[in-house]
Design goal:
seven-stranded parallel sheet; 11 helices; four-stranded mixed sheet; about 35% helix; homodimer
Chain lengths: ~325, ~325
């Protein structure tokens, strides 16, 4: 019997989850839940109901894993604990600083409901976290480096849009190539914020706005831009929509560590992602881990889990024998 | 209480294990077992006994995990099942084609003894396997690429040494840079054996040997060299020992996969290792997984396990709370 997936929230993540479920032989989409009027939500999959979230309790016995596709700022801190009492759930909560608090809330709710609640699944947190943990365990004496990009930072794009005179904007975070090379060469550099990433901004001005003033305000904005080498390009709204609508992203995780009687040997572990679509890749990770959630729930586990708690084989539909014969 | 580690076999892997255990705060080396006369084996750690393997049964209650540091060709197929009846064991068995058989033998023995027997831990099989499995689960529609090197292949070096007229030899496996670039660029190339790796040989001739004939025999050797672009350099024994004694190695695992309604988005996952010392890195992986073996045994698990069965958090001495706060 196929694993029955529910999706809550039908934006980029919801749509990506739907696509990833369709690509999985052992899963089927049972329903999409929305806060909007279901009549106004058109999904890709034929014959699957779109249901208002107010009716979600009626689906308790018809869904194996509910994939929560809301945002980390306000949706997931409420939704994940709430629905973990009713369903096995999985989310992509990505506010690193608030993970311990979110974990505790989901853990209590999931244990109360006898469910599994998996949080913070995606690529960072998610696959990058896995790589940091594996590499730290293997090379305890070393340094970690994480670089993001090239890709759009939503938070930085929003910050630019709040500047007076700005109509629209996209901001790319770009890793500094010479920093990547220095890490790859085993130089174990101490890198400042400025030495790790560049920030490139594409800005559409309001009519009559002062370009020089806008550029100055962006470049001097504390936390967001002041500590970086920032480039500002002024373009038309048409150019922004045409050239900067993509959702590509990526990044790099390194650990450079030493072994040997006199620490004479250096080792470099590098993990990198180059993604055409950030939401589709993130949801591909979510759906693989939804398979693990089902398996852990079937084994009787309950409570909050993260990628660090999941044996890799649990992500796969193949048997242990098949995995050992072909992928080990 | 620290995890008490035993080492069986004191070559490069045994020494590497000893160094990695010394670097772990939560472990201690209990004993080194050898088939040789213990009086002739000098280890690095003060105060730790070197014991003939004939006495190993006396150590049943004094060792939490026995790290088997023998070779995959003849040692481990016998040793791992044998000692899995008496101890929790871990090995680096790396003959991919024989893993299912080895797993079955170790599984039966470990279950009989109520122990955990973890096999095929290192970087390939091991970390590369993990990356293949994660990436296949996340991107089911895609292609895998594994490249090895630059590093010495022991099997190919041995094959050259069997050629008439050769006194000594080292062979480097080198990934073809243009192939790596093509994969990184998302071109999803179909690569022949020749397009993936180069083979570079450093050969010391016997006195009076025919260099041209030796070179021809190497380059035409089926399986080992005939399908590759091979370079042969003739050097002196002194040069070989001076310039080619290193144990550096490394490699790359890629998955390039598509998502999207029309498979319009490509994603590339790349994992790579650049290692100054192949044996020291391999044993760093073994020792991290020895920590997991102890934990799995403490939880009452028995039987054969591989890296695919281990939750990443089990490799770490830190608590789940610490890992979630700092590495997730």
């Amino acid at each position: 019997m196929k694993t029955r997936i529910g999706i809550l929230g039908y934006g980029n993540l919801g749509r990506g989850t739907e696509i990833a479920v369709a690509a999985a032989d052992d899963m089927e989409l049972a329903a999409v839940f929305t806060r909007r009027d279901p009549a106004g939500v058109k999904i890709l999959t034929q014959g699957v109901p779109v249901v208002n979230v107010s009716e979600i309790e009626n689906w308790k016995d018809k869904i194996d894993v509910l994939v929560l596709c809301g945002g980390s700022a306000t949706d997931l801190p409420v939704q994940t604990p709430k629905y973990a009492e009713l369903f096995n759930v999985i989310d992509s909560f990505d506010t690193h600083a608030r993970i311990p608090e979110h974990f505790a809330n989901v853990d209590a709710a999931a244990k109360k409901g006898g469910k599994v609640g998996m949080i913070s699944v995606g690529w960072d947190p998610g696959l990058f976290s896995l790589n940091r943990v594996y590499a730290n365990a293997i090379l305890p004496d070393g340094k970690d480096y994480t670089f993001w990009g090239k890709g759009v930072s939503q938070g930085h794009s929003d910050a630019i849009r709040r500047v007076k005179g700005v109509r629209n904007a996209k901001q790319y975070t770009i890793p500094v190539e010479s920093a990547l090379e220095s890490v790859r060469n085993g130089e174990n550099p101490e890198l400042t914020t400025r030495q790790k990433h560049l920030r490139e901004c594409f800005v559409v001005l309001e009519d009559g706005a002062d370009a020089a003033q806008v550029e100055k305000e962006i470049k001097e904005m504390p936390n967001y831009f002041a500590d970086y080498d920032t480039t500002v390009h002024f373009i038309s709204e048409e150019e922004l929509l045409r050239d900067h609508a993509g959702m590509a992203h990526g990044g790099f995780v390194f650990r450079s560590g030493r072994t040997g009687v006199n620490k004479e040997n250096n080792h470099i572990i590098e993990y990198s992602l180059k993604l055409d679509s950030n939401p589709e890749f993130t949801t591909s990770v979510l759906v693989a881990y939804a398979r693990a959630v089902k398996r852990m729930a079937d084994e009787g586990m309950t409570g909050a889990k993260t990628v660090l708690d999941v044996p890799p084989a649990y992500l796969c539909s193949q048997s242990g024998d098949e995995l050992r014969a072909h992928l080990l």
